[in-house]
Amino acid sequence: MFNSSRRLSGALLDLLFPQRCINCQREGQLLCSTCSGAAPRLRPLICQHCGMPWSSSSLCNACRSHPLKLDGLRSVFYFEGIIRQSIHLLKYDNLRALAVPLATLMREYLDTAALPGEILVPVPLHKRRIKERGYNQSALLARQLGRQVNLFVWENSLVRLRDTPPQARTTSAEERRRNVAGAFVCADLRLRGKKVILIDDVATTGATINAAAEALWKVGASSVWALTLAREI
Description:
It is a single chain. The chain is α/β, with parallel strands linked by helices and 233 residues long. It has a single domain (42-231), classed as Rossmann fold (3-Layer(aba) Sandwich), CATH 3.40.50. It has helices at 2-16, 33-38, 61-65, 81-92, 99-112, 127-133, 137-149, 173-180, 207-218, and strands at residues 72-78, 119-122, 152-153, 158-160, 184-186, 195-203, 223-231. The strands form two sheets. A five-stranded parallel beta sheet has the order 1-7-6-2-3, with helices on both faces. The mean pLDDT is 91.
């Protein structure tokens, strides 16, 4: 009864206030297929470990010197244009409904480039950030993606111990690694032997995801991959 009423209310709101694409203003969706289809995607050739654009199918120079401590990292788009705008609106303008079409784009990526996993774990925010923002954008993406790919989402498995400065304010890869070293802990023993996919909105060097993966390895996860909507190059 409650779900039926909620669906009816949603349909009425869509009728009175139809959604429009945040980019072209076309009526129908918050992110239309034309605009999302034009967004630049990361495609091979990429480093087979960190997923960064690379001139061959081998490991990039960064992974040869400082390999990420996870099985692999993949991203769908470059962090620019409509994707950058969408993530900004999702994170900072409370446009939570964008999580649905953005998660759909992540699911479409997995349809063609599947990752091994049985549990989705969003990269957590510190409780102070949650209090300020009211939600974790990575958890919103993970929930919607989990529904679409029929995987469990364990939102509370990882805890962020330190409210680290935003990675965008750091300058070098080494500084980013130091910034998040030991920032996460996992006490969820249910993850022992599980294949985990970490979910986040944006990756740059992969330092944050790497620190989160280290916490998952410590409780015995059997594999840890990561998927982000975008990659800042």
